[in-house]
Design a protein that fits this description.
Length: 470
Amino acid sequence: MSEALADVAGGGGEHRDRLARRQFESSTVRAFTDAARRQKVAARDHIGQNSRMSAMAVPQSTRRDVQTISLVGAGHFFSHFYYLVLPPLFPLLHEELGVDYTALGLLLTVNGLVAAAAQVPLGFMVDRMGASKILLAGFALMSLGVLLMGMLPYYWALLALMALVGLGDAVFHPADYSILSQVVSEQRMGRAFSIHYFTGQLGFAAAPATSIAIAGWLGWQTALMVMGLAGLAVCTLMLYHRNLLETDTDAAPEASSKPDQSVRAGIGLLFSVPMILGLVMFAFLSLTGSGINSFGVSTLNLMHEINLAQAGSVVSAYLFAAPVGALAGGVLADRLRRVELIPVFAFAVVAVVIAYVAWAQPSIVQTAILFCVAGFCAGAAGPCRDLLIRAITPPGQSGKAFGFVSMGLNAGGIIGPVVFGYVLDNMAPVSVFWATAGFAVLTLLSAACLGRLRVPTVADTHDNASEKTD
């Protein structure tokens, strides 16, 4: 009897043990299940957060690119704007200062010579010290020079101040291209360069009308002071948003003191075959434009025996189509892998169109339409010429490289008027357009050769730069 009771008691104990084990196992399973569920939820939340961050990163990158391009473009606008604020005032200066037009023309010559001479040294400074510092200093100096021209109405003061303005203006190409190349996202590089080109041309277009309008209202001295203050205001805005303009060199200037950044290495780069070819391409490009910009009106006046206003409207069709073409060229450059094909094709069209105008001598309306086509194509090549130079430039050398090749633009601006003036004086008027078409052919040939030296692509320039940096 007692044994039976013991068996029952023992069986009950075993039952309780089984129940306890089941409860323990159940609670353990629930604990692991709950932990797994919490991990799954946490992982889902983490993925969602990363997705939201990724979604936010793209607009943030786009917004920063737009802000950087806008600031750089605003400065480039004033760079071109200030070059043409004084010429519309020459009749007033001629009367009030009692100087002839040759002396007034010397103001622009001094400005251009100083700008040309200073670009390469400033390019070295950009690569060593940082682009944003040099850009802001040059912009402030240029704006201050225009402001002081209104405050010091004496010829010799104007001559010295135009040299000061030229020195400030010299920073823009080395600094601007260095900032755009290093700060803007690779997939928007073509459009960045096209907007940069567009804002410069817009400055040229806006300067004469603005200068004349303000001078007619407030007088030429006050007009110069107002325009100088406007530049200082934009420069202050750029200073406030300086973080959007900072390159790697701005952040760590000591990194630019490596041996490959030495002056000797930099000079070796500038006198390499690709850089010399880039300089030549820029010079031919400037000479092509000079034939139409400088002597297009005079040539059309003699060819068609039309008045200057009519001839000017035809040339204006070319000038206004160029910035529009630049915007289109930037979009196209971001989509094509062989960007050198754009200037080759564009200047082939320019050469054919201008040669046809010289050969067939179409009506003035037809000439205006053809000039519009030529201007659009020439403008479309603008961003691509800059991408070609960027593609052959080692990382950290953009300042000196663009400063060097930009001297080709200055050289073309100095040589072109002399060449085309000689042609117009000693040959038939149509010879100006034949010469312009010839320079367009030389431009496309130099662009093609530059592309063969190193095939530049928007997609691979960043990868190549990364490899060189590593």
